[in-house]
Design a protein that fits this description.
alpha+beta, 309 residues, 2,3-Dihydroxybiphenyl 1,2-Dioxygenase, domain 1, 6 helices, 2 domains
């Protein structure tokens, strides 16, 4: 199967208005569409991510019983990342490729989209993906969408300039990298040495046709935070990473909005500085968020840092 564009990351919440306000305020996203589709039992909003042309952040909330409410019920009512939305040349090819690997995709209303986790089925559900083909624009009940005049965020925001990557936790990074390569042509462009970190190892995959990359992290050692994550919920999405233009501005925005950060790192590569930190899911609507800044493109460990072989 071929993915030719990542369209959005979708987050489910019981409080649509509150989550949109958070994303417009602290994150500086700009709402461009809203919808209320009683037939599909969903309300939602699409927000532009600064610097991420063609990729958006979508927030959806249930308006009755249905898959979204089931998702919330299964997670104790807590919001969280729901799926990654992508465009493909042909939905039937996607269906055939998934079924050949033992994955039975769900079908959206009137066949507008397919939905399935892309991880090897023997390892648990993994990250949910939603696919649409050419000529079909509705993926989240947004056939009833109305355009919204984008407003300017009130107060300081993080100064995000790009959605850099989505990170998935998995037991074996190489096994998952091979799976994604064979299934959808993902290409490895970065990996840490096996012994660089005492509790983890990671690699980064390029998604053909997308500026967004896919990171895979796996546990190492006897007390790995990734092992605890996998024990709690299996090999799902671990965090989402955004690049910010100005580190001090981003930290000032967090302080202004009463949003603490944790796990800060800083360093220098090839004579240029970089920094990164995290925001806990309880302050973002259920998604662990990583922020990074780099003095010069490519000095932070990411997709364009290709190590010599």
């Amino acid at each position: 199967m071929q993915i030719y564009r990542i369209d959005h990351v979708a987050q489910v919440t019981p409080d649509l208005g509150g989550q949109v306000a958070l994303l417009e305020g602290l994150f500086g996203f700009r709402r461009v569409r809203s919808w209320d589709d009683p037939g599909e039992g969903v309300r939602g909003a699409r927000l532009e991510i600064p610097g991420s042309h063609g990729q958006a952040w979508e927030v959806v909330a249930p308006t009755g019983d249905g898959p979204l409410q089931t998702f919330l019920d299964e997670h104790g009512g807590r919001p969280g990342l729901h799926h990654v939305g992508a465009e493909v040349p042909d939905l039937e090819t996607v269906r055939a490729d998934l079924e050949a690997r033992g994955i039975k995709p769900a079908e959206g209303p009137r066949g507008r989209w397919l939905e399935a986790p892309l991880s090897p089925p023997e390892h648990g559900p993994g990250v949910l993906w939603r696919f649409r083909g050419p000529g079909s624009l509705d993926m989240c009940g947004d056939s009833a969408a109305s355009s919204v005049e984008p407003g300017e965020p009130e107060g300081p925001s993080l100064g995000i300039v790009a959605l850099d990557h989505i990170c998935q936790a998995f037991h074996d990074r190489d096994a998952l990298a091979r799976w994604y390569h064979d299934l959808a042509g993902f290409v490895q462009v970065w990996r840490t040495p096996d012994d660089e970190h005492p509790d983890m190892a990671d690699l980064v995959l390029n998604i053909p046709g997308s500026a967004i990359c896919w990171e895979v992290i796996m546990p190492r050692g006897e007390d790995s935070f990734i092992a605890r994550f996998l024990d709690r919920g299996g090999p799902g999405a671990h965090h989402v990473t955004f690049e910010v233009a100005d580190w001090d501005r981003a930290m000032a925005a967090c302080e202004h909005h009463g949003t603490p950060t944790f796990g800060e790192n800083e360093g220098s590569t090839d004579g240029a500085a970089w920094r990164d930190t995290f925001i806990h899911p309880k302050h973002t609507g259920g998604v662990l968020v990583q922020l990074f800044w780099e003095e010069r493109p490519g000095v932070w460990v990411r997709s364009d840092k290709v190590p010599p072989r």
